[in-house]
Structures are given as C-alpha cells and as structure tokens.
Design brief:
Elements (H helix, E strand, L loop, with lengths): L2 H33 L4 H6 L3 H27 L2 H4 L2 H12 L3 H10 L3 H11 L5 H51 L6 H54 L10
Helix pairs in contact: 3-8, 3-9, 5-6, 6-7, 7-8, 7-9, 8-9
C-alpha cells in the first residue's frame, strides 16, 4: 500500500469517526436535555477545561493506536524482510562464486535482508567468524529499527489508562468541591452524576489500552520470529563463503 493511499484512508476514517460521534452527541444531547440527564458533551466537558483536554488526549491516543496497528500489519510482514527475489538472486550468485552479482542484487532490492547481507559481504576479507559477528550486529540494528515502531503501541497502551485515571481524579476533585454548594437530596444526585462522569475517562482509557497491548504483544512476537528467520537465512546464504577467497 502506498503511503499516500494509506494516509488518505486514515483521514477518511478520522472524518467518518468525527461525523458519527458528532451525530451521536447531538442526538444523545437532545435526549439528555429532555430527560434532565447527562449528554455526551456534559461527560466530555464536565464544566472543566482540564477534563476536555484529557478527552482530547484520549481521542488522539485512540487514533494513534489505530494508525499504529494498521502500520504494524503493513510493516511487520515476512515478505518485506525475506523477499524471495533477494534470497534466490544472492543464492544463485554465490553458488557461482560471483560476489559482485550478489552485492548488485542487494543494491537493487534494498531492505533489512539486503542491509544485513551487505554488512556480511563488507567483512568477508576478515574471516568467517568476523562475518558472523557482523551479521549478528546488523540483525540487532534492523531489530531495533523495527521494534521502535512496534513499541509505540506499548506506549499508547500505557498512556491511555493514565489519561483515564487523571480524568477520574480531576473529576472526583470537582465532584467533591461541588458538594459544598448542594444540600439535601440534590447533594446525593450531584455526587452520583459527578462520579459517573469522572469514571467515563477511565473506562475509555482501558478500552484503548487493552487492544493496544494485545496488538503490541502479537506484533512483537511476529517481528521477533521474522528477525530470527532473517538472521538464520543470511547465515545459510553466506555459508558458502566459509572457505572462499576473495580476489582483489
């Protein structure tokens, strides 16, 4: 999927989500006003700018989480790390003793596998043990690049419940502060409504956090397995160079 198409789809999803949310907010707000209850706007704003900012943070985190999940499905793929064209091209070139063609194949097909292979080829004059160490180091570099993107899902999974807890705490503070001006039955009703409003942020934060952490664990395991297969594939490809002599 091209990046332009990917961003176009994400923007369309965001616009659709905002439209649906606005329609639901308008409908439920009208019903709440008629029944004297709370609408979505009352829950989101709650008479506090801080509460509104926390909800904006939750909405932003949910959008970023969705984007990262889709991005992980696009990036963490076996074919991207182990393209058959590179494996077959390098294997054929090395079997014929043509190191230049193997390097050319890597240059023509840039990617993690090609990067690791080129590091191996650059150190071929230093002996096979040095090549193995170089391959291991290059694999760690590619792993770090990939895991940096996947780890953002973990960050979202940690931030969302913290934002939710912050919203609940600030809502509870405002709830108890508002009790000072209420008396009798109105005090119990105000406290119940305020606590209900405050707990919504924690609920939404957990709704964002749970799938975020689940997808993080899944994509992390997939990425680890692919990277191990990549290192094993590289070592298998270059084993023909164990006793090879490179002509200057």
């Amino acid at each position: 999927m091209k990046k332009s198409n990917f961003w176009r789809i994400m923007v369309m999803l965001l616009v659709c989500s905002i439209s649906v949310f606005a329609q639901e907010a308008a409908a439920e707000g009208g019903e709440a006003a008629a029944s004297g209850g709370q609408g979505i706007w009352d829950i989101i704003y709650g008479g506090s700018l801080v509460n509104l900012l926390i909800w904006l943070g939750l909405f932003g985190t949910s959008f970023v989480t969705l984007w990262l999940i889709i991005d992980a499905y696009i990036v963490v793929k076996r074919d991207k790390f182990l393209p058959p064209s590179v494996i077959n091209g390098v294997s054929e070139a090395l079997s014929q003793g043509d190191l230049a063609s193997a390097i050319g194949c890597c240059d023509a097909n840039p990617g993690p596998l090609a990067n690791i292979l080129k590091v191996a080829f650059d150190n071929i004059n230093d002996g096979y043990e040095v090549v193995q160490q170089a391959v291991s180091s290059a694999t760690d570099m590619e792993s770090e690049k990939l895991m940096q993107r996947v780890n953002y899902l973990n960050v979202c999974g940690q931030i969302a419940p913290m934002l939710g807890l912050m919203g609940t705490v600030t809502g509870m503070v405002a709830a108890f502060a508002g009790l000072a001006n209420a008396t009798g039955a109105a005090k119990a009703k105000l406290l119940a409504q305020s606590i209900s409003t405050a707990l919504w942020t924690t609920c939404v934060g957990l709704i964002i956090s749970v799938p975020s952490l689940l997808f993080f664990t899944y994509h992390k395991n997939v990425a680890t397995r692919i990277l191990l297969d990549t290192e094993a594939t590289v070592l298998d490809l270059i084993k023909v160079l164990r006793n090879a002599q490179v002509e200057e």
